[in-house]
Design a protein that fits this description.
five-stranded mixed beta sheet; 326 residues; alpha+beta; Trna Endonuclease, Chain: A, domain 1; 12 helices; Arc Repressor Mutant, subunit A
Length: 326
């Protein structure tokens, strides 16, 4: 905790020329016990504004929806601005915090203080260095480990038999995983060996910034062909996994290959939605690989919908992920 406060003071001095002296908030005991476990609270004066720092001291990163709800809970007692503070926040969650207009400071990295007209993003640093999104095949390897994996290590030839990619493609996937520090690659004899550094939820959190939406495009169609290789996706799948009822039109996912077959079957594509239309999502990898009873897997579904700004959808996605047996 002392390191966070020291880093925050130094960061504000360097960026804003503002010397601050955080003081422990005396009303912390009025907060629920779980809030006292998650956060430490400090009063601080920024220029002429008295603010309360809500310093996240939990090990795992919380969702922006949860952070905002907790911030509003604090403001039931504290009348002025509440600023969220954490040493590291993923790029995706930083974006979501800004969309929710949650003031935050990441010491040495970035700050967003809309009440003071401050939005310093030029100090942004990627938590895990420079890297883009994973290729579809690399993403499938990560999802396989998260959803089906029981092995201690993998080889390109073994995964090629399971996932249907070539050995060369999977060799490149190993390089991507090693390049961002998600996996460790070594040689045993003539075989390359991949070991993931983390398992379960920790691997998901480590990989999430590099994972992309599996959806390449969405198409309105009049109806599905009778012989179809589809699985439920989008809001239809979210309705299946949670209590959310968010769709009037059924949503299905197909691979690029299956979409080509459907077009050969002369499926009728619509320019706009019609009352009895459905949505076809064309995926970058086959949605049937990890399907659960004709429904796309939870992790791919999360990735396909995480850019949705509806708070009900965000909450449902977090409920779905939080309920997984990692």
């Amino acid at each position: 905790m002392e390191n966070i406060i020291t880093g925050l003071k130094q960061y504000l001095k360097e960026t804003l020329g503002c010397s601050v002296q955080p003081v422990k908030w005396q009303n912390t005991g009025k907060m629920p016990f779980y809030m006292q476990d998650y956060y430490a609270f400090f009063q601080v004066r920024l220029f002429d504004r008295l603010c309360l720092l809500m310093v996240d001291q939990s090990r795992e990163e919380q969702t922006p929806v949860t952070i905002n709800k907790n911030r509003l809970r604090v403001q039931e007692i504290w009348a002025d601005e509440v600023i969220y503070v954490r040493p590291l926040v993923s790029a995706y969650n930083r974006k979501r915090l800004i969309e929710h207009k949650v003031p935050f400071i990441i010491p040495g990295n970035q700050m967003y203080l809309p009440m003071l007209g401050i939005d310093l993003r030029e100090y942004y640093k990627k938590v895990r260095g420079k890297a883009g999104l994973f290729s579809p095949s690399t993403q499938v390897v990560v999802l396989y480990e998260l959803l089906r994996g029981i092995e201690h290590y993998y080889t390109p030839s073994r995964l090629a038999q399971v996932l249907g990619y070539t050995v060369m493609t999977l060799t490149r996937a190993f390089d991507e995983l090693e390049g961002v520090g998600v996996g460790e690659v070594s040689m045993e004899g003539r075989e390359r060996i991949l070991r993931f550094k983390e398992k379960g939820r920790k691997l998901w959190d480590m990989s999430r910034d590099y994972l992309r939406s599996p959806v390449q495009k969405r198409v309105w169609v009049e109806r599905l062909p009778e012989k179809r290789q589809t699985v439920q996706a989008g809001f239809t799948a979210l309705d299946h996994y949670t209590m959310l009822s968010a769709t009037k039109h059924p949503v299905y996912a197909v691979s690029q290959e299956d979409w080509k077959i459907m077009q050969q079957d002369r499926v009728k594509v619509l320019p706009i939605a019609e009352p009895y239309a459905c949505v076809i999502e064309v995926w970058r990898y086959t949605p049937r690989r990890f399907e659960e009873n004709k429904v796309v897997d939870r992790l791919s579904l999360y990735l396909s919908l995480r850019e949705n700004t509806d708070e009900r959808v965000e909450a449902a996605l977090e409920e779905m992920i939080g309920g997984m047996n990692w």
